[in-house]
Design brief:
Belongs to the cytidylate kinase family. Type 1 subfamily. ATP binds at residues 7-15. It comes from Salinarimonas soli. InterPro entries: Cytidylate_kin, Cytidylate_kinase_dom, P-loop_NTPase. Helix content is 53%, strand content 11%. The protein is an alpha/beta fold. It has a 5-stranded parallel beta sheet, with helices on both faces. α1 (13-24) crosses α9 (191-205). It is globular and about 45 Å long. The relative contact order is 0.21. The structure holds cytidine-5'-monophosphate.
């Protein structure tokens, strides 16, 4: 059983994916971490983010087990990941790894931007999790504030709009509702409400 979860930045898809994975007893892969990992390696080496061949070489050699989540979160890394993720060669280099994860016996839950459309087009259940940009910015702003990051709400909203724009207009694997995808708008839902709605949609897809 493969569950594909896609959606824009700060839509809550990561939290939902984790809870669904626990609920259905499957392993979970947050594919955003792979793109963040590529950007992290380039930044650590002092190399530019705008060289597709360089970024693809890093992606091809990425060791999923070595990703240190604590160094991959944060605004700058999301922005950097969005830049390298627009290169087709980077996406291609990460495809095998994602498909191997999805292909484990018993299946898996993967979340990202192109899971239902490109990585696992034959997934058993596909959710497209979204919320209004203002609501997503408010959630991200609260989360940053709780971690002591004083970024103002307007700056968070501008970030989110810029990432939405870049992720939806790139030519390779843009953010789209995949064929067969069920849209879950969480604007008016709390985390438990969103989880209950997601389980209902997944159960209805199986
Ligand atoms: O989901 P997260 O915010 O961690 O993703 C960071 C960036 O990585 C996104 O803005 C997007 O550009 C890219 N990404 C992607 N495809 C995925 C997952 C993430 O292009 N499957």
């Amino acid at each position: 059983m493969i569950i594909a979860i896609d959606g824009p930045a700060a839509s809550g898809k990561g939290t939902l994916a984790k809870r669904l994975a626990a609920h259905y007893g499957r392993p979970h892969l947050d594919t955003g971490l792979l793109y963040r990992g590529v950007a992290r390696v380039l930044l650590d080496r002092g190399e530019p983010l705008d060289d597709p061949a360089l970024a693809a070489a890093v992606a091809g050699a990425l060791d999923m087990g070595a990703l240190d989540e604590s160094r991959l979160r944060g605004r700058e890394m999301g922005e950097a990941a969005s830049l390298v993720s627009a290169f087709p060669a980077v996406r291609g280099a990460l495809l095998d790894l994602q498909r191997r994860f999805a292909g484990q016996p018993g299946g898996a839950v993967l979340d990202g931007r192109d899971i239902g459309s490109v990585v696992c087009p034959d997934a058993h259940a596909k959710l497209f999790v979204t919320a209004s940009p203002e609501e997503r910015a408010a959630r991200r702003h609260r989360e940053l504030a709780s971690r002591g990051d004083p970024t103002p709400y307007e700056a968070v909203l501008a970030d989110i709009r810029r990432r939405d724009e870049r992720d939806s207009t790139r030519s390779t694997a843009p953010l789209v509702v995949p064929p067969g995808g069920r849209v879950l708008d969480t604007t008016a839902l709390d985390p438990d409400g969103a989880f209950a709605a997601a389980v209902a949609l997944v159960d209805a897809s199986l």
